[in-house]
């Protein structure tokens, strides 16, 4: 299911298990992906994370099917409430970006929408540089 609200990026509701590694915490947390976009993800951890994690670096890994394809998103925690953790994507390798692009395209069915979102993302990167 597609959620756009007033965002520049479509959030794809996608229920899947992920691994979440938050910098300075000793454990890798298992979590469930609730939604994902070109700009980030929302996950629900299996157990509450009581530590202060706002703005900490993190790494989320989503394995797609049995063929070994993955989406690995390096980012930071932008919000945290109990078991819910919102991540902002800061870096993805080419394979992860390709897999995320396929996932978004399969769920939106719109090459035009995806093209618009990719253009917006590239323009925002240019403005920061």
Detailed description of the structure:
With 129 residues, this protein is of the alpha+beta class. The protein has one domain: Beta Barrel (Thrombin, subunit H). The chain has helices at residues 94-108, 111-128, and strands spanning 2-3, 11-22, 28-37, 40-45, 57-64, 69-81, 84-92. The longest helix is centred in the C-terminal third of the chain and has 18 residues, at 111-128. It starts with a strand and ends with a helix. The relative contact order is 0.18.
Mean pLDDT: 82
SS-derived structural category: alpha+beta
The level of helicity is: 25-40%
Q: State the fourth-level CATH superfamily.
A: predicted glycosyltransferase like domains
> Strand sequence of the main sheet, in spatial order?
2-3-4-7-6-5
Order of helices and strands: EEEEEEEHH
| DSSP summary, beta strand count | 7
Q: In terms of per-residue confidence, which ranges show pLDDT below 50 for 5 or more consecutive residues?
A: 1-6
Task: Output the number of helix runs.
Answer: 2
Radius of gyration, in angstroms, nearest whole number = 14 Å
* CATH fold category name: Thrombin, subunit H
Number of domains: 1
Mind describing the biggest β-sheet? 6 strands, antiparallel, barrel
- Percent in strands: over 45%
